[in-house]
Amino acid sequence: MKTVAGGTSGYRKFSRIAADALTGRLGVVAMVLGYLACAVALLGYVSSQVYTFSLMEDISKLERQQKVLKETVGLLTADYAELSSMDRITRICEEKLGMNPADAGALIRVSIDTDWAPGGARSDFDDEVVDLPGMMGRSIDELTEVMRR
């Protein structure tokens, strides 16, 4: 085989054989195979382009959905902040549930085991501890009286 400078190259041989096959000089079978190879190559190219285009459409659709979801997250975060604000909860507890604001004197600690206390075996709250196991099975009036104490 001669070099490109010499005149004939591999590409020239291939193109000559392909041209001969497509024009029918190499026979009908070679011509059909040549056109079939061209059709398969063209079909492969077109299908890859269609697939690429569909992927691009999917990407843009998903980007739009992501943008909408981010906006929704922002709105839901604002709604959550508004719904869980301390002022709103306090207002609902006072107005709709009839609860009163707690003061330090009205609070009591309820414990199941009087030996357990945060910070040691006994605590400063021992005189205000309610014996919960002893309260089990009592009527609601007795429980309410204990809670008022």
**How many β-strands, per DSSP?**
2
Rg? 43 Å
Q: How many DSSP H or I helices?
A: 5
Structural class: mainly alpha
The proportion of residues in beta strands is under 5%
State the domain count. 2
Question: Could you list the spans in which at least 5 consecutive residues all have pLDDT below 50?
Answer: none
Any idea what the shape is?
rod-shaped
Please state the average pLDDT score: 77
Order of helices and strands: HHHEEHH
Largest sheet: 2 strands, parallel
Q: Ends: how far apart?
A: 110 Å
Q: Which percent bin holds the helix content?
A: 55-70%
Oligomerization: single chain
Strand order of the largest sheet: 1-2
Quick gist of this model?
The protein is mainly α. The chain is built from 5 helices and 2 strands.
Helix and strand topology:
Layout: H1 10-23, H2 28-83, H3 86-95, E1 110-111, E2 130-131, H4 132-135, H5 140-148
Parallel strand pairs: 1-2
Helix pairs in contact: 1-2
Summarize the structure in words.
- The chain has 149 residues and is an all-alpha fold.
- It folds into 2 domains: 10-83; 102-148, no CATH class.
- Helix content is 62%, strand content 3%.
- The chain contains 5 helices and 2 strands, in the order αααββαα.
- A two-stranded parallel sheet has the order 1-2.
- α1 (10-23) crosses α2.
- The longest helix is centred in the middle third of the chain and has 56 residues, at 28-83.
- The model has no long low-confidence stretch (mean pLDDT 77).
